[in-house]
Write a structure and sequence with these properties.
Helix 1 runs antiparallel to helix 3. The protein is an all-alpha fold. The protein has 5 helices and no strands. It has one domain. It comes from Cephalotus follicularis (Albany pitcher plant). This is Zf-RVT domain-containing protein.
Length: 109
């Protein structure tokens, strides 16, 4: 459910693939410096990070976060990273990505 929602926030609508295929898909669809590729890389990394933290929390502390909280943390990390970087274009073409991830919209570039 976490990965499905992260893909949706990245405007990617497709079936969930086996993990090895997800990694391959992401490695081929997140190359380059285009804004949406950067968003995909950030979302992928943040998802892996927060799922690993959740795995450790469950294994070692027997504490379980709801999946919605993990999604919120991923969104917060990605949106925060995008908001802190001034080198990314924030234009109408990427409006929905910025809105989905809580990143502020700037001037057209």
């Amino acid at each position: 459910m976490v990965w499905r929602e992260v893909l949706r926030m990245c405007n990617i609508v497709r079936p969930i693939l086996p993990w090895a295929d997800e990694v391959l898909w992401m490695s081929t669809h997140a190359r380059g410096s285009a804004f949406h590729h950067t968003v995909r890389r950030l979302a992928f990394a943040a998802t892996i990070y927060h799922l690993w933290i959740e795995r450790n929390r469950r294994c070692f502390k027997n504490v379980f976060l709801p999946y919605q909280e993990i999604i919120r943390l991923v969104k917060q990390d990605v949106g925060g990273k995008l908001a802190s970087g001034n080198s990314y274009p924030r234009c109408e073409r990427y409006h929905s990505l910025c809105v989905n991830l809580g990143a502020p919209l700037g001037e057209d570039t």
